[in-house]
Specification:
This protein is an alpha+beta fold. Helix content is 33%, strand content 14%.
């Protein structure tokens, strides 16, 4: 199973760099470990509103303070 990167990190074993602002997908040996530590999520809907806003900020996408979670997800997926 592949999971979304929600916190940027460098994979010490695989050597790759994964970025949350690009919504990278991680598929590797450390998936369960990184998921448990909060670096990965199954889907955008699993993220908090705060995490979604963080992703949008990093991507430079504007949103309204009053936007609901579903709208933030739509913006992140564009």
């Amino acid at each position: 199973m592949a999971r979304l990167v929600i916190k940027s990190f460098k994979d010490k074993k695989g050597g790759g760099v994964y970025y949350s602002d690009r919504l990278d997908v991680y598929k590797g040996d450390r998936e369960e470990e990184l998921f448990a530590k909060g670096y990965l999520a199954d889907e955008l809907k699993d993220l908090s509103v705060s995490d979604l806003k963080n992703i949008l900020d990093k991507k430079g996408i504007e949103y309204k303070r009053s936007d609901k979670k579903q709208r933030l997800i739509e913006l992140a997926e564009e």
